[in-house]
């Protein structure tokens, strides 16, 4: 079969919100302590931030960073993490059975976001915490009124409010593993109350309600708080067989179906509650999670197949760009990490490189494209008719550049595709960026860091119709000017 990709330069579908390339850091394992923050390390700056990690984060232009959990958030008391470090209480975290020193707290998080250029996203404690405590945290961070908590922030060295825009109303409260576990109806009422009063302190805040990847839960919650929250969340971790390439690379299509299902639940809720705004989807935890456990500090080795899966997730989110406007990989460093660290070194995993490719080389306007490709099926999640070739077409309207991402999900075969562009004139040298490795399961180690990465290939002279051979188990971004 001749694979075909048709691109319609003049058919805009929507804007891709860069927040879909967001990340998440939790007080868990070596994500924060020993990952992004390591006091006394020669690799750290004066704040205790690992400079090598910060540099890597800057290179993927992290747009938004979620903190402090996760499960940890549901037993976190923010006042433990402010003021002089030596005086901060050591606590036992009953979410992960670990000692929390509280040396990384609100000021450290905000400073980290400022240096990294990321928008902070704080998840509130709906488990062991009260509304009062959450309101105090919001006031401490965002207010400039002459109040106790604002003056406390000023005494702690920050005159200017932090202006945290995104506030999560709890985490996974539908699950028995979570402090505060409750029914959808109970949670929906709490989320309504929290969101309502948080916005009294700062009406510019956007709140995120806990969704459960379950239409019953999601509808019940939205019925109760949909008028006052801005997002509903969804978390998806998948466990495809590490030796089955097709199970792994097909898994993103399951995610696309679940995101679409959530969108339809939002539409149903909206149809009989007539919200005056569209509720957005925050896909604020996602990843492949195989064996990682507390015993292994939640660390998971990722390979090229996993990064092709991540590229598939990006293409899916592009197709749903009008409803999925934030996503956060779980997690950024060490814990299910896109980045791994040792005491004296850093390693960028294949998943990091998927972020690198899309965050740097794809554009923000999503346009129509049609792919004609052979399909495959897998037993994993009963996924059928998955195309080997999956494409997402975007344009940078200001600079008039087409940025086309093409995944070749074939494990062994290079695939030649004919690319036809309509609705504009393409000509000149295309820049070509490729994420790939020698084998479908290639991975990086501290000894061999470059087995999987993004490289720029030789430019190719193209016009409105051209062919390209997409290498087996790879993702390619083609950038070319159009008029
Ligand atoms: O990312 C690890 C954990 O997975 C998070 O703490 C929790 O929200 C989810 O169950």
- Percent range for β-strand residues: 25-35%
Number of domains in the coordinates? Answer: 2
The CATH architecture category of the largest domain equals Alpha-Beta Barrel
Q: Please give the largest β-sheet.
A: 10 strands, mixed
CATH superfamily of the largest domain: Glycosidases
Bound molecules: alpha-L-arabinofuranose
**Total beta-strand segments:** 24
Based on helices, strands and strand pairing, what is the structural class? alpha/beta
Overall spatial form: globular
Number of helices: 9
Distance between the termini: 31 Å
CATH topology of the largest domain: TIM Barrel
List segments where confidence is low: pLDDT < 50 over at least 5 consecutive residues: none
Mean pLDDT: 97
Please identify the top-level CATH class of the largest domain.
Alpha Beta
Radius of gyration: 22 Å
Helix content: 25-40%
Enzyme class: hydrolase
Pfam families: Alpha-L-AF_C, ASD1_dom
EC number: 3.2.1.55
Catalytic activity: Hydrolysis of terminal non-reducing alpha-L-arabinofuranoside residues in alpha-L-arabinosides
Blueprint (SSEs and pairs):
Layout: E1 3-15, E2 22-24, H1 51-59, E3 64-67, E4 91-93, E5 98-100, H2 106-116, E6 119-123, H3 131-142, H4 148-155, E7 166-168, H5 184-201, E8 206-209, H6 215-225, E9 231-238, H7 245-273, E10 280-288, H8 304-319, E11 324-330, E12 339-341, E13 346-348, H9 350-361, E14 365-372, E15 375-376, E16 386-387, E17 389-396, E18 401-408, E19 415-422, E20 428-436, E21 453-456, E22 460-462, E23 465-470, E24 474-481
Parallel strand pairs: 1-19, 2-3, 2-11, 3-6, 6-7, 7-8, 8-9, 9-10, 10-11
Antiparallel strand pairs: 1-14, 4-5, 12-13, 14-17, 15-16, 17-18, 18-24, 19-23, 20-21, 20-22, 20-24
């Amino acid at each position: 079969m001749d694979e075909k990709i048709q691109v319609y330069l003049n058919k805009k579908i929507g804007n891709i919100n860069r927040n879909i390339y967001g990340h998440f850091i939790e007080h868990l394992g070596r994500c924060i302590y020993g990952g992004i923050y390591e006091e006394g390390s020669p690799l750290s700056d004066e704040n205790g931030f690992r400079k090598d990690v910060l540099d890597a984060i800057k290179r993927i232009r992290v747009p938004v960073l979620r903190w402090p959990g996760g499960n940890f958030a549901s037993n976190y008391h923010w006042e433990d993490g402010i003021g002089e470090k030596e005086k901060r209480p050591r606590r036992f975290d009953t979410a992960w059975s670990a000692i929390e020193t509280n040396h990384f707290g609100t000021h450290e998080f905000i400073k980290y976001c400022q240096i990294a250029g990321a928008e902070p996203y704080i998840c509130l404690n709906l488990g062991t915490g009260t509304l009062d405590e959450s309101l105090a945290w919001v006031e401490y961070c965002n207010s400039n009124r002459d109040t106790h908590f604002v003056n406390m922030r000023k005494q702690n060295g920050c005159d200017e409010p932090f202006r945290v825009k995104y506030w999560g109303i709890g985490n996974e409260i539908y699950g028995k593993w979570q402090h505060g576990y409750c029914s959808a109806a109970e949670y929906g009422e709490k989320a309504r109350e929290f969101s309502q009063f948080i916005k009294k302190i700062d009406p510019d805040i956007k709140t995120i309600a806990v969704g459960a990847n379950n239409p019953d839960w999601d509808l019940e919650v939205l019925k109760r708080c949909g008028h006052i929250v801005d997002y509903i969340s969804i978390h998806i971790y998948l466990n495809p067989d590490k030796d089955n390439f097709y199970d792994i690379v097909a898994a993103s299509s399951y995610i696309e179906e679940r995101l679409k299902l959530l969108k339809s639940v939002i539409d149903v809720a909206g149809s009989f509650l007539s919200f005056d705004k569209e509720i957005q989807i925050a896909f604020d935890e996602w990843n492949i999670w195989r064996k990682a456990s507390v015993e292994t500090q939640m660390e998971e080795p990722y390979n090229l197949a996993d990064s092709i899966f991540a590229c598939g997730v990006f293409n899916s989110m592009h197709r749903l760009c009008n409803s999925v406007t934030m996503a956060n990989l779980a997690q950024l460093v060490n814990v299910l990490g896109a980045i791994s660290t040792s005491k004296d070194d850093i390693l960028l995993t294949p998943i990091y490189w998927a972020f690198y490719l899309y965050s740097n080389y794809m554009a923000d306007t999503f346009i129509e494209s049609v792919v004609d490709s052979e399909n495959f099926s897998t037993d994993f999640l009963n996924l059928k008719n998955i195309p080997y070739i999956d494409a997402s077409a975007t344009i940078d309207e200001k600079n008039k550049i087409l940025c086309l991402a093409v995944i070749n999900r074939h494990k062994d075969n290079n695939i030649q595709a004919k690319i036809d562009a309509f609705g504009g004139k393409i000509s000149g040298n295309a820049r070509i960026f490729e994420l790939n490795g020698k084998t479908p399961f290639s991975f990086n180690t501290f000894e061999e860091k470059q087995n999987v990465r993004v490289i720029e290939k030789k430019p190719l002279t193209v016009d409105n119709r051209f062919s390209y051979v997409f290498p087996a188990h790879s993702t390619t971004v083609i950038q070319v000017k159009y008029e």
